[in-house]
């Protein structure tokens, strides 16, 4: 808030305070004098008795200007309330509506913004009727598209955050997502913008009154005084100067204050960016720990020919795999191979304009047949960055409790008790106290535990964890991964663990899917990783050091780069980087056979 000590902020604050003081005391101190007719002194210029002169009723213009403060500010407040009531819902709705309706709402905002503000104000004012009401409605309506556009941008950013995705996957209704997750997180910049809007409303109302569309006699505001005195501007300029100065002082004051507050409150961008690869960390390959043997029938998750496209690019290209009850499967691959999009597609969370094709069956039922409520209780998702996955404006306990009230029909008390119980299960030190805290009061590890606890609020059959420990330090990583393994073991839920880290995957998963350029190139038991047959898997393992790696030799790397989704070559996508490439690899795409998609695999 140091920026609130800037000269412009202090000037804004001072001008607003002066305006508000005059709004309170103005009619009280000068109201009587402002209304007193004096036929002997009509239309006089400056004099010691009347510093700004008099009007056509002989009334003192200085007293009228001061007394008009309350009416002028009040009308600006009313206009701003109308702007807020129209602009914020209109701007926020596209973030929760379906794609078509959202496009329509966005198009409406864009066309209204393109309309000249003054024309829109006059149009609305004429429809609402002349006088104060018309002016207030006119200015209120005319400023709404601008506020809607800002709201749309802010809400769009929050709507694409992990905690909104988490709320959606947990089945929160559109209204709940909007009211509990989006609006509280954009409230601050909106309140500041609304403050600045008060200044614009004052100026706008004065303009309408000046044009004769505003307050009508015997009422008066600064705009009306300007309208009445303007014809005398060359004869008695001081008569016009009073109301003009008042409009300028108050308008500039509110605008400066609002903009300074907005600048002061501007936050650093949150750390939600994708983490970098972590292949250089400790690599002690330990025996696998969890899950039944692969191939168990009645898969909890069955993915068939899944593709995800964005325009001309297809980052996930027809992958198929399944996860059996109680099994934990790992997905590995270089950054950009399509791991996260696969997880998002499983949760029905691929962002627009992404298009998903193929089938995802959860517990044997297609994803699209499951209601949000069912999906929310049967599937838990743990995202990369726990801070981004929790709504910063809500207490952790409230976020967890929301799942139980939304899905299980629990009362608020029951839901809260369940939340405290789940926080205890993930071993937070003081579950009851921690439930009352906000996410920023938690350490990174505690936040990720809270996210896991949120997944446990339902009865998940599958826990999808996408790089759940990348944002955490190494010691906390291990504890969180062990907690996830324990959750799978105690609840019987299956797991899908996405990671860059081969050691993590081989430690916690029985089976591994290796992704390259949007396809699964090899599927194998994790203990077979060192004897993988696909040259890419071999190269991945070779470039992941472990305790047996000879430190005197340079670390092996995979030459070249993975192709971007819009330039995947024909044939095998790995061919340009492969040491075992054949002519055929460049032309024919190998389809997976017995878990291997390669024309020239290594010996087993
Ligand atoms: N919203 C999007 N719009 C367009 N392309 C996208 C979008 N999200 C992801 N992609 C592209 O899809 C590809 C796969 O992305 P994805 O996030 O699934 O990779 P990843 O394997 O999870 O990588 P990382 O390990 O770095 O998270 C990338 O090339 C990425 O640029």
Automatic annotation (TrEMBL):
InterPro entries noted in UniProt: AAA+_ATPase, ABC_Ni/Peptide_Import, ABC_transporter-like_ATP-bd, ABC_transporter-like_CS, MetI-like, MetI-like_sf, Oligopep_ABC_C, P-loop_NTPase
Give the CDD domains listed for this entry.
Answer: ABC_NikE_OppD_transporters, TM_PBP2
Question: What is the membrane topology here?
Answer: Multi-pass membrane protein; Peripheral membrane protein
Q: Where is this region: Disordered?
A: 267-297
Q: Which residues cross the membrane?
A: 73-96, 108-128
Q: Which Pfam families match?
A: ABC_tran (PF00005), BPD_transp_1 (PF00528), oligo_HPY (PF08352)
SMART domains tied to this protein: AAA
- Top-rank taxon: Bacteria
- Give all residue intervals belonging to the ABC transmembrane type-1 domain: 69-258
Pinpoint the ABC transporter domain residues: 301-542
- Fetch the PROSITE patterns from UniProt: ABC_TM1 (PS50928), ABC_TRANSPORTER_1 (PS00211), ABC_TRANSPORTER_2 (PS50893)
The subcellular localization recorded is:
Cell membrane; Membrane
Q: What keywords tag this UniProt record?
A: ATP-binding, Cell membrane, Membrane, Nucleotide-binding, Transmembrane, Transmembrane helix, Transport
Which NCBIfam families does its entry note?
oligo_HPY
Q: Which family does it belong to?
A: Belongs to the ABC transporter superfamily. Belongs to the binding-protein-dependent transport system permease family.
Q: What is this protein called?
A: Dipeptide/oligopeptide/nickel ABC transporter permease/ATP-binding protein
Q: Which organism is it from?
A: Actinocorallia aurantiaca
């Amino acid at each position: 808030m140091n920026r609130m000590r800037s000269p412009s902020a202090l000037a804004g604050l001072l001008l607003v305070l002066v305006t508000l003081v005059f709004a309170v005391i103005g009619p009280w101190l000068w109201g009587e004098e402002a209304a007193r007719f004096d036929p002997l002194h009509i239309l006089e210029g400056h004099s010691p008795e009347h510093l700004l002169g008099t009007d056509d009723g002989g009334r003192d213009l200085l007293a009228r200007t001061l007394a008009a403060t309350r009416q002028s500010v009040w009308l600006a407040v009313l206009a701003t309330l109308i702007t807020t009531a129209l602009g914020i819902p209109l701007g926020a709705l596209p973030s929760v509506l379906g794609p078509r309706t959202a496009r329509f709402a966005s198009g409406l905002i864009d066309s209204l913004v393109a309309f000249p503000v003054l024309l829109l104000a006059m149009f609305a004012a004429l429809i609402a009727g002349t006088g104060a009401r018309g002016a207030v409605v006119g200015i209120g309506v005319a400023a709404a598209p601008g506020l809607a556009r800002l709201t749309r941008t802010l809400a769009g950013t929050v709507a694409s955050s992990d905690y909104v995705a988490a709320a959606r996957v947990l089945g929160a209704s559109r209204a709940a997502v909007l009211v509990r997750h989006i609006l509280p997180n954009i409230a601050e910049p909106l309140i500041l913008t609304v403050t600045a809007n008060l200044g614009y409303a004052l100026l706008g109302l004065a303009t309408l009154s000046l044009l004769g569309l505003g307050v009508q006699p015997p009422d008066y505001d600064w705009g009306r005084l300007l309208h009445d005195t303007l014809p005398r501007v060359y004869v008695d300029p001081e008569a016009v100067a009073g109301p003009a100065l008042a409009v300028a002082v108050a308008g500039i004051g509110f605008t400066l204050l609002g903009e300074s507050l907005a600048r002061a409150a501007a936050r650093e961008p949150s750390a939600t960016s994708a983490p970098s690869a972590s292949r250089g960390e400790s690599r002690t390959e330990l025996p696998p720990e969890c899950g039944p043997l692969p191939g168990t029938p009645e898969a909890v998750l069955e993915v068939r020919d899944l593709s995800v496209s964005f325009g001309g690019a297809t980052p996930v290209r027809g992958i198929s795999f399944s996860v059996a009850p109680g099994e934990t499967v790992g997905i590995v691959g270089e950054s950009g191979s399509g791991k996260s999009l696969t997880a998002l597609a499983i949760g029905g969370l691929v962002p627009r304009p992404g298009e998903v094709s193929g089938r995802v069956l959860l517990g044997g039922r297609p994803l699209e047949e499951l209601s949000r409520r069912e999906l929310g209780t049967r599937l838990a998702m743990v995202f990369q960055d726990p801070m981004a996955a929790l709504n910063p404006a809500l207490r952790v306990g409230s976020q967890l409790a929301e799942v139980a009230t939304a899905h299980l029909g629990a009362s608020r008390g029951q839901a809260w008790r369940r939340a405290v119980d789940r926080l205890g299960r993930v071993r937070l030190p003081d579950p009851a106290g921690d439930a009352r805290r906000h996410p920023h009061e938690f350490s990174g590890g505690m936040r990720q535990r809270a996210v896991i606890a949120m997944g446990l609020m339902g009865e998940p059959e599958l826990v999808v964890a996408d790089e759940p420990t990348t944002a955490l330090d190494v010691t906390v990583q291990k504890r969180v991964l062990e907690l996830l393994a324990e959750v799978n073991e105690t609840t019987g839920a299956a797991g899908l663990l996405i990671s860059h880290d081969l050691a993590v995957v081989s430690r916690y998963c029985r089976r591994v899917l290796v992704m390259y350029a949007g396809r699964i190139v090899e599927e194998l038991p994790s203990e077979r990783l060192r004897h993988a047959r696909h040259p890419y898997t071999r190269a991945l393992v070779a470039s992941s050091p472990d305790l047996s790696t000879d430190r005197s030799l340079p670390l092996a790397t995979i030459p070249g780069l993975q192709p971007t989704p819009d330039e995947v070559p024909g044939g095998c996508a790995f061919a340009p980087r492969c040491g075992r490439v054949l002519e055929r690899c460049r032309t024919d795409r190998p389809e997976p056979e017995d878990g291997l998609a390669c024309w020239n695999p290594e010996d087993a």
